[in-house]
Amino acid sequence: MVEGPGTTRNGIKAEQLIGQKILNITTSKGVHNPWWTNRKLSQVVKIGKELFLIFALIDETIIKEQNQQTPNHDLALRLHFGMVGSLHINNHGTQTRQYKGRQPDMPTLEISFESKLLRTYDTTISIPINAIAPRTKYQRLHTFDCCSDDFSLDNVVEKLMSPSLSISRDTVISDVLLDQNLCPGFGNVIKVEGMHQARIHPKRPLSSLNEEELRLVVDKCQKYAMRWFREGRAPTKAVYNQTSCGTCHKVSVRICRVGGSNRTTFWCVNCQPMNPNALQQHAVATSQNIPNGIKRACPTHGPANVMLRRCKKSGMNEQRIFYCCKKSNCRFFSWADTNFPMCKCKKRAVLRVSKTDKTGGRWFFFCAKRGPTANGCGYFEWADQKYLDRYGQLLTPLL
Ligand SMILES: [Zn+2]
Ligand SMILES: [Zn+2]
Ligand SMILES: [Zn+2]
């Protein structure tokens, strides 16, 4: 997911084109009327995970007629980067993006300026709207935006404590932090890591957090977001997509879909108790130590570059896990499931992690031919720890 930091970085890239005239715009949906005629990029507005490109008329006389500082007829294009969206500034004549062995990618948006091309991929674009709406939204939210220079921790905490808060106080904190009207820019990774650093359990209702805890969790999320913004990639994750906790080093990370947003959430049962005063000792006692794993090594690049992946191609090997090498041109490959049990249809069982409320984080085996039409044997079994230990840290829940 592209969270606030990525959107803000994309906005900064786009700002270099402010003042330039638009020659043409194409989108993946096609364009019927050239609404951009005689317009230039006049402003880039960043609000949380949304980016607005604002286009003003070039013809001064029209603006003078309106007699306003920010004319009412400015138009804005809204961009949202979803899971993997991106924004690029290219020179004219540059080919579109192409991944090794695939067809060239078609941009979802291409704006041709006098000197450069602005392209986005895998991005949601809304039809142009009047620029008043995003400007108003910016005025309302900029002090809450985690990557804004105007971010104010006091303002966010005050709003969350306010009696006139727009959401129910029963809302779990995990959902509160994802609410783009309260904490614009926070996404699932920032939320998970911020709650972990603040030692807050994701299912605690907003009403159970005192001011000090709220301040701590918002502050940790925002600082994580700012590091992500400065470094250009997500900082080290202690619990997100981990099996063992990066803080206490126990195999104590739970995974579960949480709250009304139903987002996959991770937390450490040891570091983030539901009741801050209780159960810590019990959790420590039931956690295991991290297994080191049997070190697999790439014959060329050694053990440090080995990773575990899942076969996504449909067919007889779908969902099987294998070892491969991080180096881009390396062909190292080895199935990682050769010791798994066989199901009754004599197929290698598939290993996955549970995300349910009761058993989230437990690994299980099942028949690869699952589902109503797949004709499988229905085999299911919880995976014994001995099967998991060999992978050590390579085995991640989102694999
Ligand atoms: Zn922990
Ligand atoms: Zn290799
Ligand atoms: Zn089977």
From TrEMBL:
Family the UniProt entry places it in: Belongs to the FPG family.
Catalytic activity: 2'-deoxyribonucleotide-(2'-deoxyribose 5'-phosphate)-2'-deoxyribonucleotide-DNA = a 3'-end 2'-deoxyribonucleotide-(2,3-dehydro-2,3-deoxyribose 5'-phosphate)-DNA + a 5'-end 5'-phospho-2'-deoxyribonucleoside-DNA + H(+)
Name of the protein: DNA-(apurinic or apyrimidinic site) lyase
Annotated TM spans: none
SUPFAM superfamilies in the record: N-terminal domain of MutM-like DNA repair proteins (SSF81624), S13-like H2TH domain (SSF46946)
Domain annotation GRF-type: ranges: 298-339, 343-386
Organismal lineage: Eukaryota, Sar, Stramenopiles, Ochrophyta, Bacillariophyta
GO MF annotation terms: class I DNA-(apurinic or apyrimidinic site) endonuclease activity; damaged DNA binding; DNA N-glycosylase activity; zinc ion binding
Keyword Metal-binding in record: yes
Organism this protein belongs to: Chaetoceros tenuissimus
Cellular component, GO annotation: nucleus
rRNA-binding among keywords: no
FPG-type domain boundaries: 238-273
